[in-house]
Request: fold
Amino acid sequence: MVNKGQKSGWNLRSLNFMATLTRENKQFAIIGLGRFGRSVAASLHKMGNEVLGVDINEKLVAHALNDSIATHAICLDSTEPSALKEAGIFEFDTVIIGIGNYIQESIITTLNVKEAGVSKVVAKASTEIHGKLLEKVGADRVVFPEYEAGEALAYMLTKPAILDRFDLDPDHSIVEVLIPAEFEGKTITELQLRSLYGLTVLAIAEDDKNFDINPLPNRRLHQGMAMVVLGNNKDIKRLPI
Ligand code: ADP
Reply:
């Protein structure tokens, strides 16, 4: 989700369409303040959310507070349900578990928070089998940061016109792409994006402030604009970008 487009002299950053969809500030607890957990905490905190950071390592808890990457930070062992309860972790609607290299601790922590009724648990997996185990104990979303970053880099290097992407499932995505040269001056109807490409245009962006959401079929597209489309990954790859 961090691709930046570059095309024939253009240096367009992602228009951040997807980010604008969720403006409401929320509360997040992040367990495990390693490289991944710190990065998630810092980004969520920067966006104005309330962030509670948790780690068994006192030094990392102190660093999180010193570096202001979390609103609060606590030192505890997340394999202990009573410690999590006492710290109020079960009251959060979203808990992110960033314990990738300690599989047993990661699984037990995920089980603890799911058993206590936390509605949205995102857990980091270090291997495929780790991911499967996390799903079995109830993780609502499993992420593979190294794999996903590698995939995003490959897209950025080979498809620079893709500014941003959001995977709905392994086969379908919502992507933000620069309007290709071949589409210059044509309307959505003329391009037959739905019948020829199987893609649905969700929005057109003229710049980072003006989005035309659910655009009319007679909307004309021009280079320099971006469009947000939903569809099968195979169909998205067929776009002339
Ligand atoms: P990264 O690869 O993102 O640096 P790691 O998996 O190496 O992540 O780090 C995970 C973090 O989780 C470490 O900072 C570690 O101290 C913390 N951690 C490990 N076990 C527990 C536990 N039982 N309770 C709380 N934090 C833990």
